[in-house]
Design a protein that fits this description.
Blueprint (H helix, E strand, L loop, with lengths): L4 H34 L12 H34 L4 H26 L7 H72 L4 H16 L7 E2 H19 L4 E7 L6 E2 L5 H10 L8 E9 L2 E9 L2 H7 L6 H13 L3 E8 L2 E9 L3
Length: 356
């Protein structure tokens, strides 16, 4: 059973939270241990100190981690968004040095409070704390920029996905009105003729409506469901045009359980009927679809009238350009599409990997 979109979003958000927490912990493990790796004498009190003073000295180093953490997040959450991203570099530099001054001041106050019997050495304090301060700022800046870049890419991807959903809904609405109007006219004619084709026609139309209204909300459908929809659409078009249009269809599926995004192929078939009938001598449409080794090959060819085609292109619905963009979003380099016009024929060749 397929996971719902809400469940997927909750799972992704949950995973992202743990990933962020793990990343923050990793960053701080590196920031805390790196100064000791670079300077083995850091944090070691002089040999002449008493045991109590050694303990206080280590406590001072431990407390200092908290204001390095504070500086890390002040830079990440305030200084970079408010000043650096807005190109207020002078103000950023002022707050940068103010932060260093504040860190040294806090360290001096703590030193005098925890070790009142020792003389405070400003040069030694700067020597040991400035590298840690710069490391914290550098790590904070890199972490923030990488995180913001990833977040922006996710927002762009989400916008593209939402646009894709909108296009699918628009595609569904574009297919239905004119086509269904013609089918209903055919049904009226069949009723008057009391034709045996009435019931199959109504059932096919019902199946099309059910698929368009309900099943296309899923992220993927079985290839069998999609091709049944295509075949029903073609059958109704055959009934509409009769012998006026030569329509040949070949659908061969290796497996009924392969999956595909819904209504991915119908624009090409709709385009063939839109541009392949009318003021054309001996109109012909060929549809060939097969799956093999989890790969789909789809070929559709139709005759077209270049003059009439220019008029129809002004209102071509979703258009092959948008279908191509949708394929790029869904399949990326897992598909190959060619669209050609040659000697009065319009040719579409699509191959895509079903398992992605």
């Amino acid at each position: 059973m397929q996971q719902t979109a809400r469940q997927k979003i909750m799972t992704i958000n949950f995973s992202n939270k743990w990933m962020k927490l793990t990343l923050h912990i990793l960053v701080w493990v590196v920031l805390i241990t790196l100064p000791y790796i670079l300077n083995v004498n850091r944090g070691r009190p002089p040999r002449s100190l008493t045991h109590y003073e050694e303990t206080q000295f280590l406590r001072l180093n431990f407390i200092s981690y908290f204001y390095w953490i504070a500086i890390f997040y002040v830079n990440s959450l305030i200084l970079i968004p408010v000043f650096f991203y807005r190109k207020k570099y002078l103000l950023y530099a002022l707050f940068f040095f103010a932060s260093l001054l504040m860190a040294i001041t806090i360290h001096a106050l703590l030193f005098r409070n925890l070790l009142p019997d020792l003389d405070f050495n400003l040069g030694r304090t700067l020597w040991f704390n400035t590298p840690t301060f710069l490391l914290s700022i550098a790590a904070s800046t890199a972490f923030t920029m990488v995180s913001d870049r990833i977040s922006e890419e996710k927002r762009v991807l989400q916008r593209e996905q939402e646009n894709m959903k909108t296009e699918l809904s628009f595609l569904r609405s574009q297919i239905s009105p004119h086509f269904i109007f013609n089918v209903l006219n055919n049904i009226v004619a069949l009723v008057r003729l009391k034709s045996d084709e009435l019931e199959p026609t109504v059932m096919k139309l019902s199946g099309l409506m059910q698929y368009m209204l309900y099943e296309t909300d899923e992220e993927k459908v079985s290839i069998k469901t999609e091709t049944d929809y295509l075949q029903a659409y073609i059958d109704l078009q055959k009934q509409r045009f009769g012998r006026k249009v030569s329509i040949e269809t070949n659908i061969a599926l290796e497996s009924d359980f392969d999956e595909i995004e819904p209504m991915l192929l119908i624009p090409f078939i709709e385009n063939a009927f839109k541009h392949g009938v009318g003021m054309i001598q001996n109109p012909q449409i060929f549809v060939d679809l097969k799956t093999e080794n989890e790969r789909l090959t789809f070929v559709i060819r139709n005759k077209f009238n270049p003059v009439e085609n220019e008029i129809k292109d002004a209102a071509s619905g979703i258009g092959l350009a948008n279908v191509s963009r949708r394929l790029n979003l869904l399949y990326g380099n897992k598909h190959h599409l060619t669209v050609e016009k040659n000697d009065g024929w319009f040719n579409v060749n699509l191959t895509l990997k079903l398992a992605i």
